[in-house]
Design brief:
The protein has four domains: 6-95, no CATH class; 103-226, Serine Threonine Protein Phosphatase 5, Tetratricopeptide repeat (Alpha Horseshoe), CATH 1.25.40; 243-340, no CATH class; 348-412, Arc Repressor Mutant, subunit A, CATH 1.10.10.10. The chain has helices at residues 6-21, 30-48, 52-64, 72-88, 96-102, 118-133, 137-149, 158-170, 174-186, 197-211, 214-224, 228-241, 245-253, 262-278, 282-299, 310-322, 326-331, 348-358, 363-370, 374-388, 393-400. The radius of gyration is 25 Å and the shape is globular. Helices cover 65% and strands 0% of the residues. The N and C termini lie far apart (60 Å). It is built from 21 helices and no strands. By secondary structure, the protein is mainly alpha-helical. InterPro entries: Sig_transdc_resp-reg_C-effctor, Tscrpt_reg_LuxR_C, WH-like_DNA-bd_sf. Pfam families: GerE. This is Response regulator transcription factor.
Length: 421
């Protein structure tokens, strides 16, 4: 695990779990103690590699096979199961003692997080989700930021990385989420995408769609495509954000994966409700609300509503009002929690001109550099300003240049000296 060999770590943990389950415990003797401690460590390894279902299963085994209720490993198992419950959004898994601690507001002293303490990082992950669930998005961001900064290898702690990304997006920090995803994917284990990589790339798809960055959206989409269920869910969100509810509906219609935990089911039904409401499919939107409301009422999983764009938000509000979903009306924000930047694509010539504008070139200098007439440059500049929705070259450079993440296409580059009138 320390070497970030995710696949090897999971394989060995599964072999160890099989050996543990094969052991018969009748009393808490030395052998039982050794097996119990091993089971706790195996559960921890599963959790840190984003295999929360297997972690929960291992901790459940510890609880069922610990005879003496005073043993520390029983408390560890209770805490481990509770942390998984908060991460996946299933509060029936959370013990009352753990809930009382996890639900406490962030204390200043908690900003000093012990480095390399996996148990603390697990609890910080759970506390981040708990803060998100009660609508304390700024508190969730502070908690997850502290935990990530204290983690030498954050790519290993998959659930923490995902909680941090959610906190960033819910706080409107889309560019920070994209930067973090890039950093995490650069730390992928040598054996491939691992367990967390595909989910982080899906977050990258989401953040790219919000930022209106079509090039990065396509890049992340390629990374997630080998994982069909995850790709369809992320594609549905991206299509919703980019104003194509019908594409989102088609993606959700093909989605049939059973994601572990109510939190991701709440995301599915939030998207389902939003895109059908936007498309004018009242009966389908009402069906979505009927599935979503119990998840919000019982598990407090309404935070995904904050990521609905304004047109979908208004449509859901109308459906909820007409269908007597007063509970949903109380939860819906007046304004969308995300600011969506329209996706803008550029031709090769527009990319060339935009790069030179970013370097401070005048129209005459651009014309000389690209061997085209000043009038052609003027035409393209005006088109760029209109497409980007700005009024000055400086604004165009600030907004447009960061989106130029690919080099000019070779097949469309003109040879030097060839005019373009």
């Amino acid at each position: 695990m320390l070497a970030q060999h995710s696949t090897d770590c999971i394989d060995m943990a599964r072999r160890g779990a099989d050996l543990v389950r094969a052991f018969t415990i009748t009393s808490d003797d030395d052998a039982a103690t050794l097996v119990g401690v091993a089971a706790v460590d195996l559960a921890l390894a599963f959790f840190l590699n984003d295999r929360v279902a297997e972690a929960a299963s291992m901790w459940r085994w510890v609880r069922e096979h610990t005879v003496d209720p005073r043993l520390p490993r029983l408390m560890q198992a209770d805490w481990g199961t509770s942390v998984v419950g908060l991460v996946v959004g299933d509060r029936t898994m959370v013990s009352p003692l753990a809930a009382a601690t996890i639900e406490m507001p962030l204390m200043d002293r908690e900003k000093d997080i012990p480095t390399r303490d996996p148990w603390w990082l697990m609890v910080a992950t759970a506390r981040t989700w708990a803060a998100i669930d009660r609508g304390d998005f700024s508190g969730a961001l502070v908690m997850s930021q502290c935990a990530v900064s204290a983690t030498p290898t954050p790519a290993v702690t998959g659930p923490l990385a995902l909680a941090y990304c959610a906190a960033l997006l819910l706080n409107g920090r889309t560019s920070s989420a994209l930067t973090f995803v890039d950093e995490q994917l650069a730390l992928l284990p040598p054996d491939g995408m691992g367990s967390t990589g595909p989910r982080l790339a899906a977050v990258g798809m989401t953040a790219s769609a919000i930022a209106g960055d079509s090039a990065r959206l396509a890049h992340f989409s390629t990374m997630v495509r080998p994982y069909p269920g995850l790709h369809r869910l992320a594609s549905a969100f991206a299509a919703m954000v980019t104003g194509d509810p019908h594409a989102a509906i088609n993606a959700l219609a093909e989605y049939n994966d059973d994601i572990f935990g109510p939190r991701w089911r709440a995301l599915y039904w939030t998207l389902f409700t939003a895109v059908h409401a936007r498309a004018g499919h009242r009966a389908m939107a009402v069906e979505g609300l009927r599935n979503l409301v119990p998840l919000i009422e019982r598990q407090r999983l309404g935070a995904w509503l904050m990521l609905i764009p304004q047109p979908e938000l208004d449509a859901v509000r109308g459906i909820a009002a007409d269908s007597d979903f007063d509970f949903v009306l109380q939860l819906l924000p007046a304004h969308a929690g995300i600011s969506v930047v329209p996706v803008v694509t550029f031709t090769t010539r527009e990319e060339e001109i935009l790069r030179l504008i970013g370097q401070g070139f005048t129209n005459t200098q651009i014309a000389n550099a690209l061997f085209i007439s000043p009038n052609t440059v003027k035409f393209h500049v005006a088109k760029l300003l209109k497409r980007l929705g700005v009024s000055s070259r400086e604004e165009a450079a600030e907004l447009g240049v960061p989106r130029l993440n690919r080099a000019p296409r070779e097949d469309t580059k003109r040879e030097a000296g060839t005019p373009d009138y």
